[in-house]
Specification:
NADP-dependent 3-hydroxy acid dehydrogenase YdfG; 45% helix; 7-stranded parallel sheet; 7 strands; alpha/beta; Rossmann fold
Length: 242
């Protein structure tokens, strides 16, 4: 592959790898990055959904089946991205699940599913991406939650995963800034997505929309190189009265 071909495939601003991107926040972030000039790879565990999402994004977008709980699969997926686009500039760590129950009643399987996806999966994704990011600098976004600072009843696994993700993100900033790699935690409140089996509807109009997080991501990428918004909390501006 020639340098010219690599640059054409990589997009005018480079390339981005987004996990959990068949729909919702991940999909909208990937779509916005493509519009902004990035070539994108998106991942999901569902082959049909991720292929359709890549088709809708269009251009050079790649849809890859990948379970973030599998570190070797992530290494292969990131290596495939680097081979296709010549490098990696943006890593958006989004894949997550929600299982909610009180500690006494939560099954071991549900606990493991949440921690293995939301926390260990984030670690595996980042670890797979660091070698490529170190070669020319870049940006890591971790999609956390206000649940990473505000515990709630029944949120044992989810709260633990997001509290842990926030800690991991803060350490990453210290570990990677000497390599010109920025790290930002995005911590939304209520977002109108399919998360935890929810089906978005008109009743979710007051919530943060996935495209709002996408716009925020692009805006952060446009910040001056000298400036790092390391943690961004995002809330609905006018939630309904209780």
């Amino acid at each position: 592959m020639t340098d010219q071909t690599t640059q054409q495939q990589a997009g005018t601003r480079g390339s981005a790898f987004v996990t959990g991107a068949s729909k919702g926040i991940g999909y909208e972030v990937a779509r916005a990055l493509a519009v902004a000039g990035y070539a994108v790879t998106i991942t999901s565990r569902d082959e049909a959904e991720i292929s359709e999402a890549a088709r809708k994004i269009g251009g050079t977008a790649r849809g890859v089946v990948c379970d973030v709980r599998d570190p070797e699969a992530l290494v292969q997926a990131v290596n495939g991205h680097v081979e296709a686009f010549g490098g990696l500039d943006v890593l958006f760590v989004n894949a997550g699940v929600g299982k909610f129950d009180n500690v006494a009643d939560m099954s071991i399987q549900d606990w493991q599913a949440v921690i293995d996806t939301n926390l260990s999966g984030a670690f595996y994704t980042i670890k797979a991406g660091i070698p490529a990011l170190k070669k020319r600098g870049g940006y890591i976004f971790t999609l956390s939650s206000l649940a990473g600072k505000n515990p709630f009843a029944g949120g044992a696994a989810y709260n633990a995963s997001k509290f842990g993700l926030n800690g991991l993100s803060e350490v990453l900033t210290l570990d990677l800034r000497a390599h010109d790699i920025k790290v930002t935690q995005i911590m939304p409140g209520s977002v109108a997505t399919h998360f935890a089996g929810h089906t978005p509807s008109d009743a979710d109009a007051w919530k943060i929309q996935p495209e709002d997080i996408a716009q925020l991501t692009v805006d952060l990428l446009n910040m001056p190189a000298r400036t790092l918004p390391s943690k961004v909390e995002v809330r609905p501006s006018k939630p309904p009265k209780k």
